[in-house]
Amino acid sequence: MELKPGPNSPHIHTGFPGVAGKYVYCPANVLSLYRDQGMEKQMTWKNLKESVFYEAEKKRCFFDDSKSDFQQVLKMNPDFEDAKVSLKQTLLDQQRKIDRGY
Predict the structure, then answer these.
(1) Is the dihedral of CA 13, 67, 90, 76 positive or negative?
(2) Which top-rank group of organisms is this from (predicted)?
């Protein structure tokens, strides 16, 4: 069963080019993530795509998907060393990008 937003919902079911999986855009969530970086109000999906925050959100979505994938593998096989190393590297990469401001 596919979920669809209601006619008055600000949520958009979409995706990012080059990033596997679906993405649900939630304006309130995105504002809370980027307020400290200068986002002043909730944006429509169209406005976000045209803003400086789009690439940051795309990268965050990619890292979240990667983390989820590795965490899922480790739930099934906690001793899978490659998944442990990959998860650790993903988390380090994400922190480095945050530290650099992107």
Answers:
(1) negative
(2) Eukaryota
* Dihedral pair phi/psi, residue 13, rounded to 5°: -95, 115
Question: 8 by DSSP, 3-state: which?
Answer: coil
The predicted-structure confidence for 8-21, as pLDDT tens digits, reads as follows 667 777 777 776 66
The 3-state DSSP class for residue 25 equals strand
The predicted-structure confidence for 39-53, as pLDDT tens digits, reads as follows 999 998 889 999 999
- Cβ 68 vs Cβ 21: under 8 Å: no
Residues 92-101, mean pLDDT to the nearest whole number: 73
What pTM value is reported for the model? 0.56
First CA to last CA distance, the chain: 35
